[in-house]
Amino acid sequence: MQQRGIALLLVLSTVFLMSIMLSTTYFYLSDAILVGEKSKRRQFEKQLLLGAESILLNFILKKNSTKEYSIDLAELLFNPLNIIRLDDQEISYRLIDMTNCFNVNTLNYYSDSIDNNVLYPWLVLRNILQLNKITSSELNEIIEKLNNHLPANPSLMSIEYEHNYMGGALQLSDSINKILNINDVDFLKIAPLFCSRQDNTLLININMLEFTHGKLVQALLMNTINESDTSKLILSKPDKGWETVELFFNFIVKKSAVDIDNVNLLLENRMLNFSHDEFYFMSIFKLVKEEGNYQLISFFHGKGKNITVLHRRLISNE
């Protein structure tokens, strides 16, 4: 009897272990199937978003091919919400101009021999603040330190540290007002003028300038051109756009009292780049479904009639 009891106990133990193994296998398989389904769904939504992006790019390229000198993205960049229908799905998107803005990454510029290229973006930043009647003692202090050590003493470790710290912090748009001690109300005035790109240039596309860019142009040109002349310049863009940057600046000289020698001196700064056919923009495509929300964020660089994808990122919230 004792042997039968032991045998029965062994059988029950084996059955119990097999039951646990089957349950574990079932749960693992269920999780694997669920993960597989999510992966397939995510790939499907990604293809939808990429398809919508492709439709938009084809539209832009087709529109660009009809223009001799410029691409007109204004109605897309300043339209808060656009819709593309694809495969019975409604995909919303918006475009963000990353060209005619103050690229905060220029504040990260540093060279072994501190030169005018280091100081220039900080002066532009101060001009932007001053044109909007905003003051920042913190910014003035940084400029003073950089200016006092220009161009001598290339090993300024304390300046380098502060410079790199400020530059890194300013890449976060919600930190600019805190770092420069600007109140929220004042910051809202200038927030649309800021952007962050991977390059370290201040790029202006003269054929994509809007009235709202007036103070930015003034700041970049160190206030050598006044607000009235800047407005006239922006509103005087030819129907087909400016053919060359030279024509753009020739117009400035003819229609304003600007000193062309001062402008030419500014243009020698390799950080400042005026162009008639180069641009950057970001697109955000969004698909909302019961299973979750999906976003495709892409960053583009355009030159002439060519557009290149610099990077993409898919975000899903399931």
From TrEMBL:
Transmembrane segments: 7-29
Single biological process term from Gene Ontology: protein secretion
Signal peptide: none
InterPro entries from the UniProt entry: GspK, GspK_central_sf
Entry GO CC: plasma membrane
Location within or outside the cell: Cell inner membrane
Domain of life: Bacteria
Keywords: Cell inner membrane, Cell membrane, Membrane, Transmembrane, Transmembrane helix, Transport
Family stated for the protein in its record: Belongs to the GSP K family.
Protein's UniProt name: Type II secretion system protein K
Organism listed in the record: Yersinia enterocolitica LC20
Organism lineage: Bacteria, Pseudomonadati, Pseudomonadota, Gammaproteobacteria, Enterobacterales
